[in-house]
Design a protein that fits this description.
This protein folds into 2 domains: 172 residues, no CATH class; 102 residues. Helices cover 57% and strands 8% of the residues. Strand 2 and strand 3 form a beta hairpin. Helix 7 packs across helix 8.
Length: 292
């Protein structure tokens, strides 16, 4: 329902209130983000950035939904130009983000979602259509209201592009560096890794006594040894020796143990600096130093 160019419709008023609310959420995220940065607390910074990203995404999503609802019962010419302008901008940003995700996506699911989102964005852009010079001159906010964001730091136009730039940055980081968003794996102390290796040594001894060879089957060794022999352990064998490596899920620490059928026998599987049956541990930093 539209009352005229200078008086916003009910839907326009509701959308304006919604965008203001999104700004309050954005400000709510800026405060802990800045505090976390000042204190050096990564988790607090992440919480603040999540609020900012969610608020900016909600702005564009809210405008798109509002436009789609309005356009089902109102001709384009009667929808406020600033709503159509925001929707066109959101569709362009979504298309560019989809193209980037399609190229840089790490898996098939990401690329399929990117294609689907890109097609919908192009269709949305075509549905909004062109704006006349007069409509473009009405700006990015509702006519007669001044700024949509009376409590905002910037004018509506600058706010739109800052929100779009922030979302583009968030998508770039999320797609190009997915490891930053994986949950942190639990850390296992070196002593527990050594216990796994000692359990492997006992199981290999029993297996060699029965079969005259060593086994690299972790499930089989678990039956002969201990439930401690799990997926963290990797066993390599040859005709007369074995080597077991247990790695911490975080990738920071690894421990190894080797054994041979004959005492004092040299084998390609032995671990440098460790006697047979003696577990040793090292860190990722140690490995990097050796590689140099």
């Amino acid at each position: 329902m539209t009352y005229g160019r200078m008086k916003p419709s009910v839907g326009e008023e509701r959308l304006t209130s919604y965008l203001r609310f999104c700004n309050y959420v954005l400000y709510l995220g800026l405060v802990p983000g800045a505090a976390g940065f000042a204190w050096g607390n990564v988790h607090v910074v992440g919480l603040g950035l999540a609020f900012v990203t969610g608020a900016t995404a909600a702005k564009f999503a809210g405008v798109i939904i509002a436009y789609l609802v309005m356009s089902t019962r109102t001709p384009n010419a009667e929808i406020a130009p600033w709503i159509r302008r925001w929707t066109r901008t959101a569709s362009v940003l979504a298309t560019l983000a989809s193209l980037f995700a399609l190229v840089a996506g790490q898996d098939l699911a990401t690329r399929l979602i990117a294609v689907f989102t890109g097609v919908l964005s192009v269709l949305l852009f075509r549905r909004v259509g062109r704006l006349t010079i007069a409509e473009l001159g009405e700006g990015w906010g509702p006519t007669g209201y001044g700024s949509v964001f009376w409590f905002a730091l910037f004018s509506p136009e600058i706010d739109v592009w800052l929100a779009g730039a922030w979302l583009a940055l968030a998508i770039f980081v999320r797609v190009s560096m997915p490891s930053l968003f994986r949950p942190t794996e639990p850390t296992i102390p070196p002593d527990q890794l050594k216990m796994r290796l000692l359990a492997v040594a006992g199981a290999e001894h029993r297996y060699h006594t029965a079969h005259g060879s060593y086994s690299s089957d972790v499930a089989e060794l678990r039956r002969l040894g201990s439930p401690l022999i799990d997926s963290l352990v990797v066993v390599t064998v040859d005709a007369r020796s074995y080597r077991a490596i247990a790695r911490d899920p975080s990738g920071r620490t690894s421990c190894g143990l080797w054994g041979a059928a004959r005492i004092g026998e040299r084998t390609p599987l032995q671990i440098e600096g460790a006697a047979a049956g003696q577990p040793v541990c090292w860190t990722a930093l140690d490995s990097a130093k050796k590689a140099r």
